[in-house]
Amino acid sequence: MNKIALVVGASGITGSNLAESLIAKGWETYGLARTPNIEIEKLKPVAADLLDITSLKSALADISPTHVYITTWMRNDTEAENIRVNSLMVRNLLNVLSEKGSVLHVALVTGLKHYLGPFEAYAKEGFLPETPLREEHPRLDIENFYYAQEDEVYAAAARDGFTWSIHRPHTVIGKAVGNAMNLGTTLAVYASICKETGRPFKWPGSAAQWNGLSDVTDARILAEHLIWASTTDVARNEAFNVVNGDVFRWSRLWKRIAAYFDIEAEGYNNKIQPLELEMANDSDIWKQIAEKYHLKETDLSRLASAWHTDLDLGRPIEVMTDMSKSRKLGFTVFQDTEESFFDLFKKLSAVKLIP
C-alpha cells in the first residue's frame, strides 16, 4: 500500500522537518496549515483552518491519508481555553478523516508539559516531577491541554481502528518562522543583537537550569522518531519521550554559543533575568540589523519567542528525559546537542534570517 502522509502544522519546526524527511523517504506528503508551507519541494500544500470543519472537509475532499502527524497547537489566554481550542482542532480533523476510512496511524506531538504542568502552573511547587522524566509517570491532577489532545486521539482510534503514537520531545531545536516555541532561533537572534550592540549575552534563567543537567530534541531526530513509531509494529499504541540522546549543562553550552557568535557570555548572577525583559525594547534594533544585513524577516516577534525560552530556562529543577522505552524497541538514532545548535545557526545565516 502506498504511504500517504498528512502533516498537520507543516509550517512549524516539527512539521517542516518531518515533511522533508517523509519526502526524502519517498512518501506522498501533504502539508496542512492555515498558511501552507510552499518552500519544501514536493510537499503538497493544503490550506485549512482546523477550527472550521467546513474548511477542513473542502480542503481534504480529495486526500485520503494513511498516516496523520499532528504537530500543531494554538496558544490561548487560559488553560481552559487551550483545552477547548486544541482538543477541538484534533477532534475536527479526525472526524473529517473518519469518513474516508483510510487512516492507519495517527501520531500526536505534545511535550514535557505533560509532566511539568501547563503554562498556568508550569514547573511550580506541587508540579515538580521526579527526573529523569519517564513515560510511566501518571498525569498530573490538573487541567492540561496535552491530556485533552491525547484523549481525542484515543477516542478516535477506538472508533475507527487506527493505531496511534504520542511523542513527547523536550525543547525542539530547528528552523521556523512565526513559531510560538522556538528556543534555538530565539537564542540566535538574541546573540546577534548582543553582537551588534556590544551587550553581554546574559543567562536569563535559574540556577538549577544553569548548573543542572538538561537535554533537548533536534527537529530532525523528532522527525525520524515519528516515522519510526508510525511504521514499526512494536511501537504502535505507545507514548514516547524523544530527545537527542545526550545530556549537557547550560553552564557550558551558553559559553559555547557565545563563542560561536564571538560575544561575551554572562552566566547566572544570583537571580533570574528574564529574556522577555532583556529583549523588550529590541524590535527597532532588530529592524535596523535586518536592514543592514539584508535579512528576510524584520519582525522580531516572528523569530524570537522570549516568553517561552524564559519558561524553559527558568525552571527550578534540572530536567532530563529518559528514552529507554524507545531504545529497547529499536530506535537508536542519536544527535549531538552542540551540533544541533550550531547546525541551526548556520542554516539561519544561510537563509538570511540572522546575519
Automatic annotation (TrEMBL):
Organism of derivation: Pedobacter roseus
Identification of the protein by name: SDR family oxidoreductase
Domain PRISE-like Rossmann-fold: 54-355
SUPFAM superfamilies named among the record's database cross-references: NAD(P)-binding Rossmann-fold domains
Lineage, uppermost ranks: Bacteria, Pseudomonadati, Bacteroidota, Sphingobacteriia, Sphingobacteriales
Domain of life where this protein originates: Bacteria
A family per Pfam: PRISE
Cross-referenced InterPro entries: NAD(P)-bd_dom_sf (IPR036291), PRISE-like_Rossmann-fold (IPR055222)
